[in-house]
Specification:
Elements lengths: L4 H16 L5 H9 L20 E2 L5 E2 L2 H11 L6 E5 L5 H8 L3 E6 L2 H13 L6 E4 L12 E6 L8 H5 L1 E11 L4 E8 L5 E9 L10
Parallel strand pairs: 3-4, 3-6, 4-5, 6-7
Antiparallel strand pairs: 1-2, 7-8, 8-9
Helix pairs in contact: 1-2, 2-4
Organism: Sinomicrobium weinanense
Function: Catalyzes the methyl esterification of L-isoaspartyl residues in peptides and proteins that result from spontaneous decomposition of normal L-aspartyl and L-asparaginyl residues. It plays a role in the repair and/or degradation of damaged proteins.
Family: Belongs to the methyltransferase superfamily. L-isoaspartyl/D-aspartyl protein methyltransferase family.
């Protein structure tokens, strides 16, 4: 597992590409510069690691496009120490970006094969979420709620109500909602019963499925 100056140069260019597409949050761009994305992919894909594209990983899933990761993370407005729930650990790349931003990350993965790989892999790179859970992300993580932010990295056919209930007042849920094409949606909790909803255009994600396999 090597991370060389050549890789760092490619990450700097990737951060510039993502910034060129509209990402302004310096903390997000710094995290993109730091996380060695090539290590999260099969070594045969290493040449593609710093292109702004999604790529296949284990269990029929994908490692998200860096712009999408940056876009969702920017919407969350992460501050150091924020308690963030991630639904869909996947490769762990989004998890690592959040950890680079000094968030306290709780992350849930429903694909057992992926969970086993990422659970071993992230600590080897020095990334240590507060908790990594094999489970059903639809239900969230009630025992650790409330959260400053919740990020869903798979397309939800509809909004899982349990996730809204686990937000702090002032907290944000960032979730792609839709069947085949998703609309990136952000819910901000304004009070115990009041939520503000904003939409940010179309994206394509693998589906968020109920119940773990």
């Amino acid at each position: 597992m090597k991370d060389t100056l050549r890789h760092k140069g490619k990450r700097n260019r990737l951060a510039e590409t993502v910034a060129g597409k509209g990402i302004k949050d310096k903390k997000v761009l710094d995290a993109i510069r730091k996380v060695p994305r090539h290590l999260f992919m099969d070594s045969s894909f290493e040449d593609h690691a710093y292109q702004d594209k999604a790529f296949p990983i284990a269990a029929g899933q994908t490692i998200s496009q860096p712009f999408t990761v940056a876009f969702q993370t920017e919407l969350l407005e992460v501050s150091p120490g924020d308690k963030i729930l991630e639904i869909g650990t996947g490769s762990g790349y989004q998890t690592a970006v959040l950890l680079e931003m000094k968030a306290r990350v709780y992350t849930i993965e429903r694909q057992l094969e992926l969970f086993k790989i990422t659970n071993l892999f992230l600590p080897k790179l020095g990334y240590r979420p507060k908790r990594m859970i094999f489970g059903d992300g639809y239900k969230g993580l009630k025992e650790e709620a409330p959260f400053d932010g919740i990020i869903v990295t798979a397309g939800a056919p509809e909004l899982p109500k349990a996730l809204l209930a686990q937000l702090k007042v002032g907290g944000k849920l960032v979730i792609p909602v839709g069947e085949i094409i998703q609309t990136m949606t952000m819910y901000t909790r304004k009070s115990a019963k009041e939520f503000e909803k904003k939409e940010f255009g179309e994206f394509r994600f693998v589906p968020l499925l109920e119940d773990k396999n």
